[in-house]
Amino acid sequence: MTVLVAPPLFWGGNAIVGRMAVGVVPPLTLNLLRWIVALLILLPFAWRACLAHKALLRQHLGFLCLTALLSVASYNALQYLALTTSSPLNTSLIGASTPVWILLTGFVLFRVPVGGLSMLGAALSLLGVGTILVRGAPGNLASLQFVPGDLYMLAGTFMWSLYTWLLLRRQTGLPGHVALAAQMFLGILFALPMAALELRYGGYAPVAWEWRTAGIIAYVGLFPSLLAYVCWQRAVAQAGAQLPVFFMNLAPIFTLLLSMLLLGESPQGYHVVALALILLGIWLAQRQSAQGAAHAVSARDSG
């Protein structure tokens, strides 16, 4: 049970800590420091395997660069950038809609067929995201009054959806920890100029080096970056894919609880409505997928 609960807890905590970092560490700099710490922790366990697979790494270098740009350099940077103007709960709720964006990205870009139940689920989840964007007030849509952070997070979910489809459609043959280390290293190379431009032109104060800063960087470098990944892999190995995916939906719940405990932020009515719509939409979409898998197994067994 611990390996199922830990990843959404760590991801929920990432939104809280990212909010705490506002005014302490600039967002793109935080993303860079996060992955430097994560790579330094992972490298002692992965460098031998990386050397053993250097031919495969060279063969798939372009693909690894693209996936590193979409995930390490872009998605996480957009998440921290979002937290400068949006609340942890809003960003977590928008992030919770990622399975539906993956579904829609597959349909639009890769012509992956989508069933009627999945389309209904997608529509409900998108309605939930729209509820967040307009803060429960439809008049904000008419006047185009959106919080920049919500739009940054929305862009991040699209980046992650595209990243997921690229991983699904191309198998590199690399062990998971080798691919992760390579993406971290390449992502850091992309994140370096982003952080440099931010510090030079972004108007942010320099990093406030203090114990609080060290704690923030240590948390984001260890828990959501590495331990969540390790626990997720073990959860899938022990329980299969369906149950861990269901537990992913706990992330906004943990974010809500941690926001109340650590930041003193209370949920609004539109948060409850948005959460219900997003989770119902994901459940319907996953139900369609489960039914499709069951039909495939039945057809295989009868044949």
Automatic annotation (TrEMBL):
<dbReference type="GO" id="GO:0005886">
    <property type="term" value="C:plasma membrane"/>
</dbReference>
<keyword id="KW-1003">Cell membrane</keyword>
<feature type="transmembrane region" description="Helical">
    <location>
        <begin position="89"/>
        <end position="110"/>
    </location>
</feature>
<feature type="transmembrane region" description="Helical">
    <location>
        <begin position="180"/>
        <end position="199"/>
    </location>
</feature>
<feature type="transmembrane region" description="Helical">
    <location>
        <begin position="269"/>
        <end position="285"/>
    </location>
</feature>
<keyword id="KW-0472">Membrane</keyword>
<feature type="transmembrane region" description="Helical">
    <location>
        <begin position="243"/>
        <end position="263"/>
    </location>
</feature>
<feature type="transmembrane region" description="Helical">
    <location>
        <begin position="32"/>
        <end position="51"/>
    </location>
</feature>
<feature type="transmembrane region" description="Helical">
    <location>
        <begin position="63"/>
        <end position="83"/>
    </location>
</feature>
<feature type="transmembrane region" description="Helical">
    <location>
        <begin position="211"/>
        <end position="231"/>
    </location>
</feature>
<feature type="transmembrane region" description="Helical">
    <location>
        <begin position="117"/>
        <end position="137"/>
    </location>
</feature>
<dbReference type="Pfam" id="PF00892">
    <property type="entry name" value="EamA"/>
</dbReference>
<dbReference type="InterPro" id="IPR037185">
    <property type="entry name" value="EmrE-like"/>
</dbReference>
<dbReference type="InterPro" id="IPR000620">
    <property type="entry name" value="EamA_dom"/>
</dbReference>
<keyword id="KW-1133">Transmembrane helix</keyword>
<feature type="transmembrane region" description="Helical">
    <location>
        <begin position="149"/>
        <end position="168"/>
    </location>
</feature>
<keyword id="KW-0812">Transmembrane</keyword>
<protein>
    <submittedName>
        <fullName>Permease of the drug/metabolite transporter (DMT) superfamily</fullName>
    </submittedName>
</protein>
<dbReference type="InterPro" id="IPR051258">
    <property type="entry name" value="Diverse_Substrate_Transporter"/>
</dbReference>
<feature type="domain" description="EamA">
    <location>
        <begin position="4"/>
        <end position="132"/>
    </location>
</feature>
<feature type="domain" description="EamA">
    <location>
        <begin position="148"/>
        <end position="284"/>
    </location>
</feature>
